Write the structure tokens for this entry.
Amino acid sequence: MANAMFAEPLVAWSTHQRDAGNLLVGEVVATAGLVALIFGLLRSVRESLVPAAVAAFIGSAYWFTSSTSFANPAVTIGRAFTDTFAGIAPSSVAPFIAAQLLGGVVGLVVVALVFKSPHPSRAKEPTP
């Protein structure tokens, strides 16, 4: 839809290579931060902040990561269909998704270390 709005071909495979190691590190950082943010807010019973916090994080991570923070496999795949500055060459998609999966694991480890157990209000009552 974005391509149509900007008078670009509806599908144009991206030629923007994003396979450098520094970009993959940036994607690990972006994804780990996003996962840690979401689960940290859930663990601290601040679910209502998740939508705004995610938007703020992605907006700022665009600027503080070398990868411009895709942080989502669906976004990565979608950006392969546009040959604009936002695109990613199809050959770069798999490494980016691998970096995102690694970032997801790192983010979950961070949450497990920082929030040793779920918030007390989340704990289930023992069944008699």
Q: What stands out?
A: The mean pLDDT is 88. Helices lie at 2-5, 21-43, 50-64, 73-79, 90-114. The two ends are 55 Å apart (CA to CA). The chain has five helices and no strands.
